[in-house]
Amino acid sequence: MPAKTVVFTNVRKFDGDKFRWISSGEYIQMSGRAGRRGIDARGICILMVDERMEPATAKMMLKGNADSLNSAFHLSYNMLLNQLRCEDADPESMLRNSFYQFQADRAIPDLEKQIKALEEERDSMIIEEEDSLKNYYNLIQQYKSLKNDARDIMFSPKYCLPYMKSGRPVCIKCIDDENSPSFTIEDPVTWGVLMDFHRVKSVLEEDANRRPEDGSYTLDILTRCVVSKDGVGKKKIKIVPLKEPGEPIVVSVPLSQVTSLSSARLNIPKDLLPLEARQNALKKLVEFISRYANGMPLEAEEMNIQSKSYKKAVGRLEALENQFEKHEIAKSPLVEQKLKVLNRKEELTAKIKSIKKTMRSSTALAFKDELKARKRVLRRLGYITSDDVVELKGKVACEISSADELTLTELMFSGVLKDVKPEEIVSLLSCFVWQEKIHDAAKPREELELLFTQLQDTAWRIAKVQLECKVQIDVESFVSSFRPDIMEAVYAWAKGSKFYEIMEITQVFEGSLIRAIRRLEEVLQQLISAAKSIGETELESKFEEAVSKIKRDIVFAASLYL
Amino acid sequence: MRGLKLPLNQTQRIRLQRAFEKLQTLSAKANSDASVTVADSIQVNYDDAFLKGHGTTDLNGELVATVCGVVERVNKLVYVRGLRARYKPEVGDIVVGRIVEVAQKRWRLEINFTQDAVLMLSSMNMPDGIQRRRTALDELNMRSIFEENDVVCAEVRNFQHDGSLQLQARSQKYGKLEKGQLLMIDPYLVKKSKQHFHHLEQFGVDLILGRNGFIWVGEHVEVRDSMMIDQANSAEQSAVPEEKSPAYTSLEMRQHICRIANAIRVLSTLGFIMDADLIMQTVELSSSLNINIHDMLGSEFHVLVAEREAERRSLMSKRKR
To answer: Is RNA-binding among the key words of this record (chain B) (predicted)?
Structure first.
């Protein structure tokens, strides 16, 4: 819609969290609509400001940079097939001339400069007795990782869950994000009192049927913290050692942060809401710690850990500890600072390595390996011949661009769509267009469930083939990308239900559902032309019937104001 | 021998027969029982869901063929690949056609399809290589681009909803074909391959195997990419007057063209599916045996080609094993 004038009625917009200033990129995009091509010499942009605005904010908004434009190009089978069936189109030359390749090429001199600067910085760092220091450094790293291993075994939920009782003092790591990692053998630790523990609800719903041992847990721990508020108004809580000033607060801590448990338990009141109760509880804890300096840690034997790898790790830890004592550099002064410098140097080396790697991959043709792998998949599945000539199946997949072309084509050729009703087809296709994840969505009814399992089987098979052909793909996530969440709602819609009725069936947003149904219609149109190209008239008319069933009422209204 | 109309003497007849028998035994193993005629029922598992593709129909609960051809199966899809039919276009195919009509903003082309193909003025590159809207003036000048009876090469773009076929010629290599021969053979004899434009360098000849069975053999024309023209200095172009290529074709070139064309004719009469390699081999066979161009269409050369092909295919099948 061309416009001569653009009017901003507000300079703030809601971003789901709060009202924020419009960014310069947004301003450029919106005001850019002003002025009709060939008619207006200039476009007019009116900005209505009804509040105080700092000059700096205004300047940033009006004179700021546009959002940077980055290529999000990716290969798809549909694109590849369409390229292959034309005589002079060559996927490789297309890739070579792509904007993606252009951006990758342009970034190379910059990367080279970065490497040079980093290398200079690294070489300028000179450390005395570097070799022996490095030796010591490696020892520390080794010791830490071993200790972590041992800890992980000890605190795997299998062993430690029985000891997660409220009132038990626990030793936790103080994690500072600002400081670089320390180089002593001991980590800074503090104590807290365990109140409760929870399982972390993970994103995938299959976890529901996992055993309790496998989930990850967080602990609610009462300890001393410093609460700081930053400008945005978000609270930031930092755990500090007990002796430092701070408030007693119950924080949730991941299990991985716990270093040891005490074998004793303190008597802590249940109600910790009043500040006093919490302070008293902490006092008790301090008392306990001062009496038993090491907090009477639970030993592995007590916890009944019989894992072989644990014993091995402990044995090696002891050996390493001996080595530390013998190491001459440990006694030299300033070892701490030296180690810090060395650490920085190591980091730089790693960084140079990773930049070099990205440079190497961008000098080569982008997607070259992926292109090869994808062609291999197409050959394996019989979409193209060994001479890259598109076959019948490939022709069908060419038509489908709005959904996963391989899965849909395979589904069609396996005859699944042949003996089901149009409503069921629509319902099945909804899995292709629906991407959001809904928790605790109702399972579809039996016949739809059956169709969905067929879809999953097909998807599984295709993902396996892709993996065998060295396409980077995660089989599990590929299969679970087909979501059955709105099958029931779409089925009802195809059956002729009213929109408010189907909104009662699922808890999804109206807008997402409408978008999904519209995309569904697009996929159906592509399937019609696909069926036409293989000459299957029955299937074609079935798809047409499906289109007529879903294309009605509010979902396909051009505008809500009509 | 499929009604070959060749004056053969006794030995030639026997040799040809033997060659064909050899070819038959080689191909028989592939799928001998798959060939059907109209109204033959096709064996399928009726309990299972299957898709019926082109050339099949449902008759009283039985799957029958509606054309003569070979039954092909892809997963659950059953279809019949017809033999000796008119050309059935597919998107992306290269076709050669003859202009039959200059109409409103479009040309109509005869391409051996059930209806004439349409080449819109807007779906071809203008001779000056500039991308712009086509004006009324362009429309008036359409005859300066293609006239009736011109031979044109284009690519299948898409099918309209009413089933009519649209072509496009969006690159310099498509367009009018001059100084050469157009051969019309059965479309099924042209093998679908990655490349249908061939530049035979040793002869300086362009060979275009149109998927519709129209084959163009003509003098090589240098294809100039429109992108290259943009980059080249336009002033330079206007300064050097275009070198007028001679209005006639040299005798040698004409002989090359005829030899290649005759090779194609021979292969077509024998019913061999051809690609550029096979055509070139046939041409080489004829020149290595010092056979005159006009003798290529005689019975002796036919027999030779058939024997050669039988040998080649038996070698290939041996290699596969």
So the answer is: yes
